[in-house]
Amino acid sequence: xxxxxxxxxxxxxxxxxxxxxxxxxxxxxxxxxxxxxxxxxxxxxxxxxxxxxxxxx
Length: 57
Hints:
Layout: H1 17-36
């Protein structure tokens, strides 16, 4: 019987490795948002708005 091993797959798979990868991605995302500042999250131009009152309101 042939025994085939794949080099890219470890013998013991860590069940928490995927959570760690997600955590690192979220950390990187939050660091990028903080380093860029909050200016991209705030609107700098607002559209014109016509406001009026009617008797129905």
